[in-house]
Amino acid sequence: MTLSRKAACNTHGQDSSYFLGWQEYEKNPYDESNNPNGIIQMGLAENQLCFDLLESWLAENPDVAGFRNGGESIFRELALFQDYHGLPAFKNAMVQFMAEIRGNKVSFDSDKLVLTAGATSANETLIFCLADPGEAFLLPTPYYPGFDRDLKWRTGVEIVPIQCTSSNGFRITAPALEAAYQLAQKRNLKVKGVLVTNPSNPLGITLTRHELTLLLNFVDAKGIHLISDEIYSGTVFNSPSFVSIMEVLVDRSHVMKSELRNRVHIVYSLSKDLGLPGFRVGAIYSNDPMVVAAATKMSSFGLVSSQTQYLLSAMLSDKEFAKNYIVENRKRLKTRHAMLVRGLRKTGIPCLESNAGLFCWVDMRHLLTSNTFEAEMDLWKKIVYDVGLNISPGSSCHCVEPGWFRVCFANMSEDTLDLAIQRIASFVNNTTSSSENIDGYSRHLSSKNSRRKSSLANWVFRLSFHDRERER
Known about the structure:
Aspartate Aminotransferase, domain 1, 17 helices
């Protein structure tokens, strides 16, 4: 059987080291009892720190968990066909939760919300709505490796990188934006928009108000769209606090009256903030009624089940629970983040200063044998196979500097994270010791060679001196 060109297209990104690391983990997964020497999964951005809060709420609300209302079963009602616009109660609960995460500094209209089967579906749907095959979106580097699949594979849209570097903490700058736009034009690509993740995956930092204003000014001047992927907005655990792109729009009332507001769109999900990736709940929020209408039609290819919507609408409508969950989730993320940063620092490995997310952007440039991506891959393979940790190399995130890695910390127990830190510490110590031995031996050889060269030089000098004496 011959596959279609689309099905056989290799732009899915499945051969990226980001996904290959997962495959190696699945062959040899760590288990405290059954496989203590297995690979620890540190390449998966899952939030497992607050499952006890979710499970406690379910236990306290058995009617909801059992799909009952007032003691009466509503299973049959939920099992039957539902309109793809989504349950109104759930959409209302979603926009309230989104506002709560943002400190209620901005409100959302449920009529402008489109439900999708996760953020993956939301991002792809938006790209389908806004761009044609062969057109382009600009993305700041480093960026989530899955975007090569989500944004490009089926849509035929191209990604042009906005090159950000460690020199300024990987912040977005006006020259970098313009350079990316010019690069797209040189490649004869029509730029339809910019997509950013805020907070950033993989950097774990929130975009500053200055960067958000810069982005708005840029897309306004170019007449293009801005997609703000805010699926990590509830994971901000340190200052500065999270600023949504919608908050910046509201603050600029003169902009809100212009057509720019219709070209700014938000992607959201409950996968990270609520730790429910398996529930497949994502959303698009847009002020443009045409985008909302088109995305709603497209959402029929990836709906959220009625049962999921019913359960989560009840959970998120419990305002006391939602508020307490957000606070406790941030507290636990902060503690776990500090544990990883502190452990790595003791081994001499620094991290980019971050305030959000489920991961750290880790600087291992000093462990490379050379400043090349080949050396980065060599180091990554040692960490996966020899150390037993699956982490994501910066090259899989399109980082322009070799030696950076994304390391996740919220998808495991505290004991497992402690073991992971011990493993990396042992590796670094052994690597450092080996380097020192090699350097010491090299210095010994160098010194020995220097003495030999000095003796040879003296011998040559004496010989030439005697030769000159004889010539006289």
